[in-house]
Fold DUF2510 domain-containing protein.
Amino acid sequence: MASGPQAGWYRDPDGTPDRYRWFDGERWTDRTTTSPDSAPQQGRTGHRGHDNGRSSSWLWAMIIVILVVAVVVAFALHRGTSSDHNAEPDLNSSSPTVSAWNEKSTTPSASSSAVTCPRGQRPGNQDSNDGRLHGGGVSVESIPSWRHENLTLPWVMGQSAQIDDVYPGWMSVSGVGGLPVAEGFSDPQTAATMMMDCFASSDYYAGYTGEKEIRSEALTIDGHPAWWKRSEVYVSLPNLPQVRGDVVDVVVVNTGQTDFLGMYFNSATIGDSTRQTLVDHARQSLKVD
């Protein structure tokens, strides 16, 4: 039996000029071309082209899926970052909100007393008749016209003080006394710092807002080592808007006693030059008894 026509490209039997149609060896197919030399010569090749198209479709589908996943991930990350930026502040921080007193600071501090001040009651001295205030082994000149009245300073031994009313509820003071070594007042510098911290604080100043150290230096009083501290204590009092605060002085002297140190303290309203001159004169008259 003679074989039939071979599969291949033949002129289109419908007579269309320059068009060729694929004959698969048994029947005409719907595949046509105008360039039979460059077109696939076998049916297998045609199927391979169909497989490539299907692979391309799968490739595009995978690309689209990857893009969708990438967009979703990016959106989730963006929301997480936005939430972090908009998070509420940590209200449970352990950082202190009030600064402790720093003896080297030159700016106001909003702290109260930075040390534990002794609370034992100690009797004061009786008035003397020699024109001086005596206590703690030291003495200063009395200020004329100021009345004798001790302050409530439980850690001060043998206090002798004077006060002068500046405004109703506001006064200036000048006084002497002793600071017990057993309570931590170990040397003039340490004791001066402790005394300033205890006296120039919210415990003794209503409306206390802060403190600024003006000077801190070593002195010699009658040949005895001493330490002088001066600070400004600031207040805010609605009933006394004209009062900014006090200038406070503390001078502590090692008098040679083993159980206490001698101490002078005063206060004068900031800007009150008259009273400041009076307490400065008293401080400069300090001597060891």
Q: What stands out?
A: The two ends are 151 Å apart (CA to CA). The CA atoms of residues 143 and 278 lie 7 Å apart. The chain has two domains: 1-65, 132-288. The helical segments are 43-85, 188-199, 273-284.
